Amino acid sequence: MVSLKIWIDISNAPHVRFFKDVIKYLESEGEDLIITARDFGDIHKLMNMYDIDFISVGKHGVSLYDKLKESTSRVYELVDVINDEKVDVALSKHSIELPRIAFGLGIPSLYVLDNEHALAANKLTLPLCNRIITPNKIDIWKLMQFGADPNSIIPYNGTSELMHFKSFEYNDNIFDDLDLKLKYPKTILMRPEPSLASYLDADCHKSVLSPIVDVLKEYANILILPRFKAQAEIFEGIDNVTILEPPVDTSSLMKKADLVIGAGGTMNREAAILQTPVISCYPGKTLAVDQYYIDQGLMFRSNDIDEVIQKALAFIVNPHEKIDFKTDDLFQIIIDNIYDLGNEGK
Fold it and tell me: What is the pTM of this model?
């Protein structure tokens, strides 16, 4: 059987964990992979940590002008990388550039989506995708408003973070391995907001977590996993606060911690899957994928600082009991659609 040539584009750090098992599986099946990744956050470090070969193309822009300029430049560079490769199928998760290039070059594309509020990204990509894999919690009508063909949408029960744990091996010694100096018996892992993202209006030199840290550092060890240097500087020099330097084994950290408080999304949902108590104080609109875990009783959400603090103190004393919930096999859904799309033109 002739192998497929598959292009995977990675544009954000969580997408490395999302695709790593897909990449390893496809490689083991003898498929020919082209993996591109932009220079943003910890993407390159994570790619190296998971031993994934990749081509670095483009970078991230902060202002709207920079975002447009960098994305346009990245399309220009990627076209030259992909044009002569005779790609059978292209795969991405919220990449702005891959659907546009795949459409322009006549390559079938498979797109993974989990943010219905990413207005600009969705308008630029969804109308161009052959198939869109998305949680069934997201309203299909919202995706159609962005121009998605309803016949292209493949819903599933669960969220994309399920992919992060397909080959997860828990390291119970993670605190010792990181040589953490922990004063209290309880530990809280915190993740600041994605303040550089286009879908969130936030100041990258401030964090909604600051007043929460100021109180909870008197009751538990605080571990902060920042997204970038300026964000780390917000929490520097605070007693009983440890700033983690990525890449680290965040999955083991979340499982080991007594509580996760996140102003973002991915790590909150990962904690929910691991059944570590988690509080979301994400400053944007509640995402459907967050509501999925809230409805399951696996996540608490509030933007009220006092309420977050009180709930945090309650959680570190009385964590919730294990909750059983059923999900679809997202890994198999992705693999099946890669082969289905890739073999259509064979």
Answer: 0.86
